[in-house]
Amino acid sequence: MALTPIPSSRSDMPTYQYQTLPTDESPEVITFEIKQSMMDAALAVHPETGQPVRRIISGGFRPIGLRSRSPEVMATSCSHNGGPCCG
Fold first, then answer.
1. Would you call 3 exposed, middle or buried from its count of C-beta atoms within 10 A (0-12, 13-18, 19+)?
2. DSSP state, 77?
3. Distance between start and end Cα atoms, the chain
C-alpha cells in the first residue's frame, strides 16, 4: 500500500533569521525572520527591499550530559562564571 504524503503547511517549517548587510546606500542593519523549507536555498536578498542579506545561525543543540573538553571554551562562551549553560 502506497502512502500519500501530507502536504506541509508553512506553520511546520523552520523559522530562519536573516540580517541585511550594510551598504553605502543603506548602512542600517535590519534583522527579520522568515519561514522556509529546509530544502529551500538561503535568501540572498531581502524579499521587500532587495538589500543583500545573510542567514544568522543562532542557538544550537547539545545532548544533555555532553560537555566541552576545554574549560577555556566554556568560560569564554558562557556568562555563568565558567559553568555550563543551560545544563
1. exposed
2. H
3. 45
Q: Extract the C-alpha cell encoding 14.
A: 523552520
Strand partners, 53: 20
Q: How far is CA 76 from the centre of its chain?
A: 21
The span from the CA of 13 to the CA of 38, in Å, is: 8
Hey, where are the domains in the chain? 12-58
Quote the CA–CA distance of 48 and 26 in Å, as a whole number: 14
Q: In a structure prediction context, what are the per-residue pLDDT tens digits for the chain, which is 87 residues long?
A: 444 454 555 567 889 999 999 988 888 999 999 999 989 999 999 999 899 999 998 776 666 665 655 555 444 455 555 555 555
